[in-house]
Amino acid sequence: MITFNYTVIADSNLLLRWEIRHKIVGLLSLIFSISFIRELWLLPLAILLTVVIYRLSQLSFAYYWSRIRLPGLFLLVPALIMPFGYGSTVLARVGPLTLKLEGSLIVLLIAIKFLCIFALVLSLFAGTPLPKLVGAMHSMGLPSLLAEMLIFTNRFIGQLLTDLRQTQIASGLRGFKGRSLKELKPLAYIVGTLLVRSHNQSERVFQAMTLRGYGEESLIQRVDEARTADRLALVATLVPAAGLLFLQFYFSTAS
């Protein structure tokens, strides 16, 4: 499971000071425009836009690398199959395998788009606390019930992971390893215990919140009013996003 750790960012961070609703629209527009790219010569433009946005977020390359390692494993399948199984132009022969130009270019296109989109997703989520992000989504039309469920889910996923670590330590001290088929039964007991404990805890939390007035006042944070700088930043993001889409569809229809 991939989790986003919200980093503490200085007030000088332009993306953090950008009003969240405008930030969501602007960065999602860039993400979708990059996902539509089919021409290789547009990739440098996508990389340039991504680098600028990521630098403005003040996130480090180490943070990016620590988050992309696991999802990057999904690139291994097309990277191992496409260069040798698609196309007719031979680049090289590696034993019985034939490296082909068309398949290699497709892998390059997929990889660069994936890296750019992941960096933009990090720029959107890593510096934005979830309550504020959910509040912005609620103001844009997300139902209140779903918004509050997102807040609760984020809170209790952390609690569930804490309980899981404690259970692993306790079972390990009792000699449980969980590395063989013979240990499937005690592993099932552990999972069942966690589920029952989580259910009971959720009931206790709901009762406690009800006693404190939950339901009379929304937990969703209100969003700030947009400023002129926020609108200008949105325009500065939408223009290159629209430019990428225009260039892609213009040259695809022309060819």
What report would you give on this structure?
With 255 residues, the chain is mainly α. It folds into two domains: 14-136 and 224-254, no CATH class; 142-211. It is 67% helix and 4% strand. The chain is built from ten helices and two strands, in the order αααααββααααα. The radius of gyration is 24 Å and the shape is flat.
Order of helices and strands: HHHHHEEHHHHH
Rough shape? flat
**Numbering strands along the chain, what is their spatial order in the largest sheet?**
1-2
| Distance from first to last alpha carbon | 42 Å
Major sheet summary line? 2 strands, antiparallel
Number of spatially distinct domains: 2
Average pLDDT level: 80
Strand segment tally: 2
User: Which structural class is indicated by helix and strand composition?
Assistant: mainly alpha
The Rg value, from CA coordinates, equals 24 Å
Ordered list of secondary-structure elements with their pairings:
Layout: H1 14-17, H2 20-35, H3 43-56, H4 61-68, H5 76-85, E1 90-94, E2 97-100, H6 101-125, H7 130-139, H8 144-173, H9 184-211, H10 228-254
Summarize the structure.
By secondary structure, the chain is mainly α. The chain has ten helices and two strands; from the N terminus they run αααααββααααα.
Keywords:
255 residues; mainly alpha; two-stranded antiparallel sheet; 2 strands; 4% strand
